[in-house]
Amino acid sequence: MIAIVAVMQIFVSCKKDFLELTPKGTALEDNFYKNETEVMQGIISVYDVTQWGTTGGYTMKMPLLSAASDDCWAGGSNASDQPNWVAYDNFKMDPRIGPQSGLWSKNYTGINRANLILSKIEKATTLSAAFKTRVTAEAKFLRAYFYFDLVRFFGRVPLITSVLATDELYKQVQSTPAQVYAQIEKDLREAYPGLPPTISATEKGRISMGAAKAQLAKVLLYENDNAKLAETITLFEDVNKVGNAYGYALLPNYADIFNPANKFNSESILEIPHSNNAAWSDWGWINGGEGNVGTQFIGMDSYNGDTYSSGWGFCPVTLDLVNALKTDPRFSATIIDGAALKAAGATYNARYQNTDYFIKKYAPLKAFRSASGVAEQNWPIDEIEIRLADTYLMQAEALVKAGSNPARAKELLDAVRARVGLASVPATLDNIYNERRLELATEGHRFFDLVRTGKAVTVLGPVGFKANQSEYLPIPQTEIDVTKGGIKQNPGYIN
Amino acid sequence: MKGKSTFILLIFSLFFSLSLRAQEIDVSGKVTSKSDGLPLPGVSVKIQGTNTGVATDQNGVFRIKVPKSGSVLEFSQIGMATQTFVVNNTQPINIVMTASQSELEEVVVVGYGTQKKSVVTGAISQVKASDLENMPVTRIEQSLQGRTAGLTITTSSGQPGDGATLRIRGTTSINNSEALYIVDGVQVGGGIDYLNQADIESIEVLKDAASAAIYGARAANGVIIVTTKRGNKNGKMSVNYNTYLGTQAPSRKLDLLNATQYATLYNEAEFAANPSVGTPRFPNPSQYGVGTDWQSAVFNNSAKIQNHELSLSGGNEKSTYYSSFGYFDQDGIVASDNSKYKRFTARFNSEHQLAKHIKFGQTIGYTRTNSVGVATNTEYGSPLNRAINIDPITPIVETDPAKYNLPLYTGNPVVRNAQGFPYGISSYAQSEILNPLAALAVAQGRGWSDKIVGNAFVEVEVIKGLKLRSQGGVDLAFWGSDSFTPIYYLNSINQTTITSYNRNTNRGLFWSLENTISYNKAIERHNFTVLLGYSAQKNKGETNGGSKDGIPVNNIKDASLQFPVSRANDVFYGGEYLNTLNSMFARLTYNYDEKYLFTGIVRRDGSSRFGPNNKYGYFPSGSVGWIASNENFFPKNKVVTFLKFRGSYGITGNDNIGDFRYLSTVSGGRNYTLGTSAGLNNGVSPDALSNPDLRWEETSSTDIGMDATLFGNFTITADWYHKKTSGMLLQIAVPGYVGNSGPIGNIADLSNKGFELELGYNKKLGDVSFRVAANASFLTNNIDFLGDDKDFLGGQTVTPQGLEVTRTKVGYAIGSFYGYRSDGLFQTQADITNYKNSAGGLIQPNARPGDIKFRDLNGDGLISDNDREIIGDPTPDFTYGLTFNVAYKGFDMVVLGQGVAGNQIFNALRRFDLPTANYTTAILNRWTGPGTSNTTPRLTLADDNKNYSRVSSLFIEDGSYFRIKTLQLGYSLPTNLIRKAGLNKLRFYVMANNLLTLTKYTGYDPEIGGGSYGVDRGFYPQARTFFAGLNVGF
């Protein structure tokens, strides 16, 4: 008897896997990503991060960067409504206050997911060559996209291009912006050949070759390196030329670009889609939904009237921008004149830093207010991050800087102006920069344009911008704490 | 040649044995007791090595034939030390037996063996059958309450079948602090309430690491070892029948406002919020009279309880058996129809001497339970919370035709009583506050379980002292529940439009195989025992369930999952769990001349729950002892008759960390919108990083103790301990650049320090004997570390607003109360204007006289969330118990008192987020003008000062109590009288449980355990019970 039990026991314990069990019914990172469906779900999760605006506080780029620039004020109900926005608006960020935590973690989440899917693609054996090429290209594009945001917001950041092993988690150090830019260029150069020139209607929102080339050209321009101008111009020309391979063309009517019914129009190159399909209602994790909360932010508070839906009164437009656009044909498509609405019988609450002027591009429109989920979290209004008028002006800028083809530069600048009925002006850098401000007002480009062109101190100095500090956000204090000082703070920010 | 001589030898020995038989000797004698010199009847007298035996008669006299002079007689009786006597020519034989009740001669169960109590070096508390006998408790854990030092037992609720929060030497983990239960060597899950109390021989509580370390990675929260009864070898069968019947009632009701008072005070609150209100909501409060007493409608003052136990046991040298049957039936004192528990138990234990050196044994217990229950401590729909908070104006049932003919009642599927009258629907109560009886009528659910726990072992004694033992154990449990929701209308926001039936069944199987070798040897004065063991166990289970909506019945009795319903209304769900443990262990116990004691243990546990980098854990411990009183130089005296000092240190683990948490799982929902027509695409990504280093939580503990006996009858045991738990599981903080959440890792630390004292005293004065046992425990719990990134964890909240009530914060005890500090009430406007910050501004600009003055703890000149701190602790610092037994001739009496001190209770009885919730009459002493009250704020519906929507020290009450847990009076009929009826025992008793509770706490019951530990949301109190019982032995 005892022998039988003893034998049974030896049998049990000698089975080497007695302690090595695998859970059933749960997808594990180790055994997922086996086939095209699963890898596709992986790449979708990377795309997902591009539409996040609420990681670690509200960080929707379009309104946030407008508040940081001279286009808008922070706004909201009062100075303590969104202190992170107010701090960025007047450049009083410190290691704990400012939008840095959310932007840092959003972009690194995207990078982690991209790194993971790249490593999984290598291991998966059942993928078709075409699928593999395209998804690899997308993952690299997206990794570059997130690093481009990081390098612009933070400057020196850790450069991580693989999933970190346990013993590497706390040991990362920051790379120089040049090293980060080199990686971004590398990823984008490897990405665009693998992407399709055009995207089918059911896949709109995935990255095209045109978008990747435009993004690469933009990155090169941001590097301010004259040696790279020739390549920049070539890339932009490929995107901008009449009869380009991607179907890009300026819309005849400027206001149509921002009509939410006009998703993925011919002028849109890089567009972040939003929808109310997830019918979201979780205030603790707004990122889980697909809506654009930025739209809710910029709406007029407690608005009661035609056309618009009520918002929260953030990002009132500065009188400076109002005056710059006052006589411009693009004014009515860019700025809501609150006083005029009131005169017509509408009401809204004047909030912090109220100017009675509000952002119109991406504003909350009654007709698009979501009937499902919490409406505030489900605005189905896309963000256009790169559009053709932008790439026209960037190419014009590169051409002028290079001095290579003034005629083409003028042609591009004229095309942008002619679309809204404005006469030609000389293609000088100042004119191009001025045109960028007016054409692209409140679309989130102005702040970085001021920084990269060296105009930030002049323009934003009066509201607090400090040279050699305010160009970059502070590194989140928690990052320095968790790495026990391994990650260093940016210049000028004292804990 | 050889065969022939064997044959001759056989013949010769046969002849020899026959001739021996012819030389049988008649032996007679008398057995008396040493303690009182009286004759001892019923003592077993047996020829050693045979089954031949007799018993002493009424006068202690026996007569037996023995084969020869030199035969050995063995005298045994329960409670007496067994004696042997070598037959010689002296007759009659006089045997004087001594009681084996001297505590220090007893053995304790130590895990994979037993040990003589006098040489034990660990901290072990023991509760024996004799302590439990005739002392009915509804759950076994309760029998430990008040009886053992170092245990904090807090009842989860008074609902029949509900358990208790049991902590051995404090809360050892922020995650899972459940003790390990070992019944007859088998680990059992889900507590030990399945056991029949009468089946228990002893319960040992292994408190320090030195004794618990033999259970390694499972032992950090302490170990409770239960041993069930075996039969006696005395050749007699004994039959015992125990029963009791009882009636239960709540010991306290709250004084709530009656309808007139309610209406009056509501008007006052309304006016305070809006002085221009005009006509108040209740223009004529007195019209409502006294109104409804909801508590009486919910409580039952005569809930029944009954228990029957029958056991048969006996045996001889070859085999023993013990079998029993039990039936227990209890109704709850709250909503009795919805709160019931029934338990049927059966047990069969046996042991057999298969051959001279081979023993085989088994235990098997089967338990079936059936229960229905109500929510016991929640503000969201417990019957008591509703009874407390609903307005007293609404009637229980609407009997006024003018009312019940209103469309509200005729046009909706309202709930009706047996007479067909609709239950009253309140026009005032809000949210979850419904007519409690109507809500109970539609809450139809029940639970059941079948559980089989058993073991079987073979033990071979190869040579004297060397034993090989193999044991297999099984815990097979089936359990499930079903519930039915009819179509009902309770009010406009609580109604259903479709029936729903939900049923689940679960199965859990635990098995273990354990092999041990032990060797016990004494070489001169060196006594040692070595134990080596090997163990493998697997724990797995599954759950299956489903629900159907829209089945065409209106009560649970007719409900079935067989009804066809549409696919969308037909839901199935399920899941599985699985874990394994593989271990080796060794123990060396050594003593020199019972003076110098040493025990060393090491166990290695490998678990499927641990990450690949930490698959195996080692758990060592060592303990030493010195019995000073056994030293030759120790002066022989009558004061200190026994004195022992002990010390131990060891490391144990807690493997209750969940299955597979070291792995990284992936989830969907990381979606993206693709396409112009906006389709939603599912994205999948890992939920968190994996952690291959994940391992057990580890507790190291030091214990220093002493045991002493003074004057031969006064025992003292004292222990000081310090336990440190490290590596408690929490999410690891990783840098943001990692891009995903950190995994669960071994992060947090806490510690428990305490002191325990157990005292015992026996005395016999003539016919009166009495025994007193007392124990006391002091305990401090401290959270030491919660990770680099945080210094607190959130805890319990109250009201749907989620107001934080407890926090687990570094530097404080686990789950401490957290909130604002009240400095009394503002008596006058001047008090408010004088409460200024450094800038000269008012600290509480919204306050009015009669509002709470909050302390500006951070000194920033305003009252905000940052002005909260730890304001109390729900865990007692001090627990104590006192048992007093006295016997006089056939009468016996027991009093068991038990208490705690130094804890607080958060009183959340009133739903202060609901303006129409009723109050206790304490509100009649509210602030109404300067000097009227400094503790009960003014009434107002507006509450601009957040008197009620801020958790403050005003709601914290003293939770100390002392309770007469048990008082019992019994009478046993004289043995000589009942012998004639063939009985050897006949005892009657009456008993009261929870007869008296002394406390300052104003709620129902100050003992609030379970998930809402220390927070009273309308706690289902323990009953005060009166029993009458009978014990019969054949």
Folded structure, characterized:
Chain B: Pfam families: CarbopepD_reg_2, Plug. Chain B: Residues 118-223 form the TonB-dependent receptor plug domain. Chain B: This is SusC/RagA family TonB-linked outer membrane protein. The complex is a heterodimer of chains A (495) and B (1034). Mean pLDDT of chain A is 94; it is low at 1-5. In chain A, 52% of the residues are buried. Chain A is 43% helix and 5% strand. In chain A, helix 9 packs antiparallel against helix 14 (388-402). Chain A is mainly α. Chain A has a domain at 33-59 and 99-194 and 465-495: Serine Threonine Protein Phosphatase 5, Tetratricopeptide repeat. Among the domains of chain B are: 23-97, Immunoglobulin-like (Sandwich), CATH 2.60.40.1120; 103-234, Ferric Hydroxamate Uptake Protein, Chain A, domain 1. In chain B, the strands form 13 sheets. Chain B has a 22-stranded antiparallel beta barrel. A five-stranded mixed β-sheet of chain B has the order 10-15-16-13-14. In chain B, strands 3-2-5-6 form a four-stranded antiparallel β-sheet, with no helix packed on it. The two termini of chain B are 59 Å apart. Mean pLDDT of chain B is 91; it is low at 1-22. The chains are: A mainly alpha (495), B mainly beta (1034). At the A-B interface, helix 1, helix 2, helix 5, strand 1 and helix 19 of A face strand 23, strand 28, strand 32, strand 33 and strand 34 of B.
